[in-house]
Amino acid sequence: MANIEAWLRRAPLHAAAIWLCGAALVAFLMPIDASYDILHYHLHNGWSAWEGRLDRDLAPAGMHSYVNPVHNLFVEACLRYLPAGLITLLLGVLHGAVLIPLYMLCRRVLGSVGHDSAISAALLALAGFSSYSVLNVVASLRNDHWIAAAFLCGLLILVPRSGEQVSWRRAGAAAFLVGLSVGLKLTAIVHVAGLAAAVLVAVPGWKARAAAALSAAFAGLAGILVTGGWWAWKLWSELGNPIFPMANGLFKSPFAPPENFRDPRSLPDSLTDVLLFPFNGPNRFNEYDTSAMQDLPLALLYLAISIWIVLARIWMKAGDPPVARPSRALVTVFAAVLATLAVWFPLFAIGRYVMSVWMLSPLLFASTLVLVWPAIKAPQRAGL
Predict the structure, then answer these.
(1) Are 48 and 54 in contact (CB under 8 A)?
(2) Does the pTM exceed 0.85?
(3) φ, ψ for residue 136 (rounded to 5)?
(4) By the number of CB atoms within 10 A of the CB, which of 143, 298, 352, 359 ranks highest?
C-alpha cells in the first residue's frame, strides 16, 4: 500500500492516463446508448441544427426541440466525421475525466481534516464515481456528466490546495464554469445555488465575501451567455421566451400554455419522501431501467448530516470542544451539496441532474467520520 501511495503522489499524470485509457476501453465495450432521450431528441436536434432546419421544423421532438443544441452539434460532428469506434473511445475519455477533479477535491478536503492520503482519496472518488447515475451515462451521448464536471471543477477552485484565502477572482472563475453548464443545459440551474453557498462559505470576511459574490454573479452570467446566450436570443426573438417553453407563466409567449410547466412525477410529496429517497425507488417514479435501483449514495450524505446535527451542539459550546471543528474546505463542499439539493428536490428530483452530489457523498461521509473518530486515520484502519 505504501508503494501505491508513493506512486500516486509521484506520478499523478501517469495514474490519470491509465485511468482514462481504461475508461475509454470500458466505453468501447459497452452497448450503444439507445435510451429514450437519445432517440427522442439528442440525435435529432444535432442533425436538425447541422442541416439548418431549426427554423423549418416545428417541434418534431416536442418541447425538447427547444433545448440548446450546442452539445448536440458536437455529437453530430462526431457522428459525421469520426469512425464509430473512435467516438466511443472519445466518449469514454470524456466520461472518465470527471473522476480527475473529483479525486483532486477528495485529496484537498481529506487533507484539510488531517488525512492527507492519496489512496483514501482515490477510493472515495471511485466510490462516488461508481453510483448508478454516473455509470448510467458511460458511452452515452447525453451531457449530464459534463454538468457535474463543471460543478466539481468550480468547487476545486474554491478549495485551494495550499489552503490560501479564496479571492474574488477564484469565485468568478468557479462561477463562470458553472454558468457555462447552465447555458448548456438549464437543469444545471440547481448547481447555481450550490456554487453560491460555496462562495459564501469559502471566502472569509464580509467585505471580501461581498466582492466574491458580486464577481461570481457577473462571471456566472457571462458563462451562461457564452454557451446559451445565442440560443436564448433566438427563442426570445422568435417565440417571446428565452427558455421556451419553460417559465411561460412569466414570459407569456403565445406559442405555449400560459403557465409554468413542471413534471411532478419524480417530485417528493412530503418531507418523509425526501428522507426515504435513497430507499424508496420501487415506490416512486423511477428514472432508471429498474425500479429496484436505489440512490444509496444519498444515504451516506444523510448519515453525515445526522452526525453534524449532533456535533453542532458540541461545537457551539464555549471552550475547547472534544471533537475537532470542521475545516473551511469541508464546510464549503458540504454547503454546496446541501444548497444544491435544496433546489433540486422541489424542482426535479431526478438523480442524474445532481450526479455531482452522488459523487461527493462518500467524501463528505468519510471526512465527517474522520472528525468524530480520528483513529480511523491510522494506517491499519485507513488501508494504507
Answers:
(1) yes
(2) yes
(3) -70, -10
(4) 359
